[in-house]
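Collaborator request, handled under Task 6.
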Amino acid sequence: MQDQFIKMDSITKIYPPDTIALDDVDLVVEEGEIHSIIGENGAGKSTLMKVLYGMTPPSGGEISFRGRRTRFSTPREAVAAGIGMVHQEFMLIPSYTVYENVILGAESVGRFGTLRHDDAKPKVQELVDTYGLNIDIDSRISDLSVGAQQKVEILKLLYRDVDVLIMDEPTAALTPQEAGELFTRLKSLNEAGKTIIFISHKLDEVLELSDRITVMRKGKRVTTVDNRGLDKAELARAMVGRDVVFSIKKTPASPEEVVFEARSLGYIDANGATRLKDVSFDVRRGEIVGIAGVEGNGQYELVQLVTGLLPAQSGRVFIGGHDVTDEDVMQRRKLMCYVPQDRKVSGSAQSMSLVDNAIMTHHRLNPEIEDRWKALLSSGRCRAFASRLVEDFGVLAPQLDAPISSLSGGNQQKVVVGREFMLDTDFILLDQPTRGLDVGSIEYVQQEVVRRRDAGAGCLLISADLDELFSLSDRILVMARGRIVAELRPEATTREEIGEYMLGAKEAQKAWRAGKEVGR
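Structure tokens returned to the collaborator:
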């Protein structure tokens, strides 16, 4: 019998004291296939790949690669053996060029430790040409789009001559055009003999690319199936153990009075770069306004200005009819819910307990968790509040006193979303609210957003996921180069058209006029 290419036997991973991340998992990946791994947050798929890649030591089990038993102690060892991983969060140095990032750590060195660019640079350019990556190796990373940066991550692994590429949520921040180009590139790499392991929450992508699909649930492998005649409903049911609704049902919006307004916002950063230029729009009660755009085109600065974390150098911000331009963060938080895009840095205190994270902001604004004398917080009421959040938002946690860092990324996000929604304000700012969530959790959060809209809240949704924007938004604004370049109705446009505006392929003024003609 021919040796299996990658074989993982009875892999177990236990995080102290008793969190079982992987429970006796078997996985076989055949040489030359595209093998997808899917599952809910906390299912163990990323942990399993980190074990394979040498980032996380297993608690038990065996791994063989090319028929030989092995266990990588570091990613460097895995890469040397021929296995590389492209993470969702890129590991690039923005001030370095493409070429410098590619050779970093694998430089060709001559006598006295001098770099041998004559050897390395032609090899990097040859790889770009061979695999049709269409990228200037002398460009600085800071000047590249997210899609181009992802090419650099792939190029780094090709330079190190890996045979296996592990792709972790590779399309999370890509436009439809960039995602399509990535799929073409991955298929080309596969045809050239590379084995691809593909982790994604987007089941359409998994069905488009995969030869075989492994489903994981609660740390166990549920099944591995050939990708023949499968559909999203089957995969989702295997992932979460129930039927999942992919298209959120919502009635047409009935917008009422304005609950948020941005007037001519402008911002220039410390380097003199214009991040926002004359940004004006409003959000009304009973509607969801989505903002699309390639990351780095002003969305971050817009969110910071709305929340008060950056000062508006020009323009005004109104929430609930109040001019809050000169108000501090806490005064604004009395009027708005806010789900930040970075749950670990902005959305939580990782070393603190689930209870402590659940009551953040509430500890200043919510009398429900105060003691009877309204002077101090009540420990019992805080725990009861956190218990209700855990139950209502389906948070999987070992205990309320566990540090939030012990939860999976998706469950951390559920705590943040639940905490903010329980503030129950009329204006909701959502910055990538479902990033990193599985299909079941996405379904729940999106249904809750629609429920809040129908209850009269106005929602501003910033998302890199165009499927999410089309599913939830009543209006879509497109940002490019710090400006709003289009206002469109989801039912009157396409993902491809939105993508063209995001990439600057369509003239902004035409798009803006078209949006204005649609009306509100």
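The cover message to the collaborator said: "The longest strand covers residues 19-29. The chain is about 35% helix and 25% strand. Please let us know whether this matches your experimental observations."
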